[in-house]
Amino acid sequence: DQQVKQNSPSLSVQEGRISILNCDYTNSMFDYFLWYKKYPAEGPTFLISISSIKDKNEDGRFTVFLNKSAKHLSLHIVPSQPGDSAVYFCAASGIGGTSYGKLTFGQGTILTVHP
Amino acid sequence: KAGVTQTPRYLIKTRGQQVTLSCSPISGHRSVSWYQQTPGQGLQFLFEYFSETQRNKGNFPGRFSGRQFSNSRSEMNVSTLELGDSALYLCASSGLAGGSHETQYFGPGTRLLVL
Fold it and tell me: Could you give the CA distance from residue B109 to residue B4 in angstroms, rounded to a whole number?
């Protein structure tokens, strides 16, 4: 039962263009969502997050959009740079005791930005 | 602030042995979560500790255990190792006491290979 899904295993984008990474979730108890970037043999690096009370959050080149009714979120990277090439994970957390310290991750999307 | 540190970075063990991995959280952080990353299952939550107490546990067998010390440092132990335990083990820390809206910051991981 995969509660967080990233349906695109990979995405290829030209430098300077927009990268859009998508994530869907099924658990309506999730109320906080995060995006992480990961290089091989390293731990995930936090990028940006969004609470369920918002529908958009921006931080520099990164913007996350949340559509609660569709249970869908997306990460936009503008402009994309070759250094953005990595695996991107969407993660979600909920409320209450069974959610303490627990992030549920998607399977990841490999982003490749070509010069 | 120094980030999350994990030791050792790499480990090779044989089936049936046990292993202990260590994690030092970001200074001031009191919550430590552990995750297992494998190619087939992705990032899976193992357990979370806060103030030396396990508050949450994922769906892993009892061979996986952990503890947290008074300085918030944490260890996880895997007994009777199996080939399938080969994975990247990630530790993450967060600062807040609650269960929601916590951003977790990850260490570099310990790569465990079971032969």
Answer: 9
Question: Using CB atoms, which residue from B31, B88, B106 is nearest to A101?
Answer: B31
* Measured distance CA(A106)–CA(A24) in Å, rounded: 9
**CA separation, residue B18 to residues A18, A47, B22, B112 (Å):** 47, 35, 14, 11
> Which residue type sits at B97?
A
Residues A2-15 pLDDT 10s: 899 999 999 999 99
Q: Please name the member of B47, B100, B106 whose beta carbon is closest to the beta carbon of A44.
A: B106
Nearest CA in chain B to A6: B42
Backbone angles phi, psi at B23, to 5 degrees: -140, 130
Q: Report the C-alpha gap between A108 and A2 in whole angstroms.
A: 13
Q: What is the pLDDT of residues A36-56, one digit of tens each?
A: 999 987 899 999 999 999 999
